[in-house]
Amino acid sequence: FLESLEPDLPALRAMGLHLWAAGSETHPAGITDFLAEASAEVDGPVPGYLSAPQNIMDTCLYIFTSGTTGLPKAARISHLKVLQCQGFYQLCGAHQEDVIYLALPLYHMSGSLLGIVGCLGIGATVVLKSKFSAGQFWEDCQQHGVTVFQYIGELCRYLVNQPPSKAEHGHKVRLVVGSGLRPDTWERFVRRFGPLQVLETYGLTEGNVATFNYTGQRGAVGRASWLYKHVFPFSLIRYDVTTGEPIRNTQGLCVATSPGEPGLLVAPVNQQSPFLGYAGGPELARGKLLKDVFQPGDVFFNTGDLLVCDDQGFLRFHDRTGDTFRWKGENVATTEVAEALEALDFLQEVNVYGVTVPGHEGRAGMAALVLRPPHSLDLVQLYVRVSENLPPYARPRFLRLQ
Which residue in 37, 10, 9 sits closest to 22, CA to CA? Predict the structure, then answer.
């Protein structure tokens, strides 16, 4: 692989790029041995606890996620999960000869671990875009010979809403992989840009459960086959949307849903399916763990998502619980938005929630405001506050004065 880079090394150096490699083999001129250079910068021997993980479950890195409750938290990602992500594209049916188009943020698990690490795992080529452009997408695919596209549902909707172009015909894309693709967009996407395979998945950054729609059933995020649930166990339990709590029977245990009934997706926490929690105190993970689910003393991970399993075992996403909503492919923490607005002296109360918008995926932010007497609404000050303290996807699109 490294030898294949030799013809391009002068151009890469001219761009100011420095290349490192690790391994016992001899590297071509112009590629630095990473371990040798790192060792030269250290005065003494590197302590063992820094040079190598003591356990495969040790924390490898942190990824911030808003999850379904509270403010964004730094989820602990183990070395094991990183290694598992190396096999993501192999599970999806991609191979070394594929060219994978990636325009997702690298601060998310989808872009970094599943995207970049997944490509490294199979030795594929990745076309890395700093920003997705629906108008440029098919031209990029033609130019680079793209065969696989990693998406979030919103990106596919952008593409089907684009006017027809010559570039969308004759492409080599055979597989699209991702999450959040609505059934109506799915059908339009395949009909217009096919033939190609859509592989819809479901998972959470800190979660211990994931599903793959390996059958191609439109609108499904996976299938609850007995074999899959034996290897990666999970359950759907009845949930009271009014109280925000699972429904329990007279013995205080949770109740599994029937086919076609929305239920809270939970997965047992054990050595086979661990949950590492978040950086900080254990109280940060308290809302993500359910105890005494099916028997006294058991512990389950609470995904915070409601799914439906039909009588054929197909799983479909239904809704999200908790105090977050999803917009532009991002999880928006209502607590974070409300705290940013509450700092304004003319606001007495702020309540933030998501509302559906026709023709758009997810929910847009609505901020219900109560003014502090005798103040009036200062839209300029509110705009400045929101622009300086919240990322674009988290800024409320609507205001409601109470």
Answer: 37
